[in-house]
Amino acid sequence: MSADPLELLAKAAESWGAPLKRAALEQISSYLAFVRAKNTRVNLTADAGWDDLVLKHAADGVFAASVLRPLLTSSPRILDLGSGAGFIGIALKLAWPEAEVTLMESVERKYRFLNAAATNTGLKGLRVLSRRAGSGAALTSYERGHDVVVSRALAELPEALRLSWPMLAPNGLCAVFQSDEPDLADPALAKSLAAAQAAMLKSCPYRRPNETRDRRLVLFKR
Fold first, then answer.
1. CA distance 96 to 69
2. How far is CA 54 from CA 43, 62, 194, in A?
3. How far apart are CA 61 and CA 43, in angstroms?
4. Torsion angle of C-alpha atoms 133, 139, 141, 143, degrees rounded to 10
């Protein structure tokens, strides 16, 4: 690729209405370099190429910030559920420094990596929790009451929503990345929404840099 992936990300962020400051781009670059350095030992992602890290993984987190920021207070509590290597939550935090972001991950090696990555970024308002959603003891104050629970590749949509609802504040949002427009007539999805007395708020299409088809960040609200 001839173009610098970080510059392509910057152009995409501007087109999404959420321009990235130079400092944020440098922090994203530093974080992704940390992922690459640890990936061979920790096995965080199969997409270890620089273009994929920037234009696939970081881009999704930056887009999430652009969608959520106009809908929320200036310092919302956001939970990245099933955080993995932290791509969504950390990129979102770097794009939106005022947000309080919690990364929740149940796999021990990834949880340890997230702690190291959070320390490496030096960001305030970035927390890491070790927990599997839907299991274990009662939720603590750190695990519930979020303004948004965001997830990507956590589970099929109905299950991702079921796991997210308990961690939301009363008027909170579920934000779920999807490859295609959700089928609201799907029985499993309809059942999940009815059980939570929830509905789809909006479906936000976008394209990652250099892609030719839309993806979606879909918002649900009770």
1. 8
2. 18, 10, 37
3. 20
4. 0
When divided into structural domains, the chain yields a total of 1
- Confidence bin at 137 (pLDDT 50/70/90): confident
| C-beta of residue 196 within 8 angstroms of C-beta of residue 165 | yes
Q: Which residues contact 192 (CB under 8 A, 6 or more apart)?
A: 157, 158, 159, 161, 162, 198
**CATH number of the CATH domain containing 167:** 3.40.50.150
CA distance 37 to 15: 31
Gap between the Cα atoms of 151 and 205, Å rounded? 16
Strand 215-221 with 199-206, pairing: antiparallel
Does the pTM surpass 0.85? The reply is yes
Q: What is the domain range of residue 12?
A: 5-221
Structure tokens of 52? 């994929």
CB 114 within 8 A of CB 83: yes
| Cα separation, 166 vs 189, whole angstroms | 17
Report how far residue 10's alpha carbon sits from residue 92's, in angstroms, rounded to the nearest whole number.
14
Q: What are the tens digits of pLDDT across the range 76-86?
A: 999 999 999 99
